[in-house]
Amino acid sequence: MTYPVLLPQLTETMEEATIVNWFKQPGDRIEKQERLYEVETDKSIMEVESIETGYVCKITAPTGTTVSVGDQIASITDTLAECG
């Protein structure tokens, strides 16, 4: 199964954020609650944890990209074969 990674609303006033760093790359295994990426909002830089366990399949918002809350920024799959 494929799970979309969406940019969450981390503060009440957050509307968008810039991806500062990805801690995992496509093909890497990720555990639930393991840090996945870091974003910069209008107030601070925050780490965001994965809400799924699996493999990072695709990153659609590379470092430096500004995205809106709710935008898909990556995907995680149960197995690497599903990423193909």
Give the end-to-end Cα distance, rounded to a whole number of Å: 12 Å
CATH class: Mainly Beta
Following the backbone from N to C, one meets helices and strands in this order, namely: EEEEEEEE
Unreliable stretches, pLDDT < 50, 5 or more residues?
Answer: none
Task: Describe the model.
- The protein is mostly beta strands.
- Helices cover 0% and strands 48% of the residues.
- It has a single domain, classed as RNA polymerase II/Efflux pump adaptor protein, barrel-sandwich hybrid domain (OB fold (Dihydrolipoamide Acetyltransferase, E2P), Beta Barrel), CATH 2.40.50.100.
- A hairpin with a 4-residue loop joins β4 (35-40) and β5 (45-49).
Any chance you could write out the topology, listing elements then pairs?
Blueprint: E1 2-6, E2 16-22, E3 29-30, E4 35-40, E5 45-49, E6 54-59, E7 66-68, E8 72-77
Antiparallel strand pairs: 1-8, 2-4, 2-7, 3-6, 4-5, 6-8
Short description:
The protein is mainly β and 84 residues long.
Features:
single chain, 84 residues, mainly beta, OB fold (Dihydrolipoamide Acetyltransferase, E2P), four-stranded antiparallel beta sheet, 8 strands, 0% helix, elongated
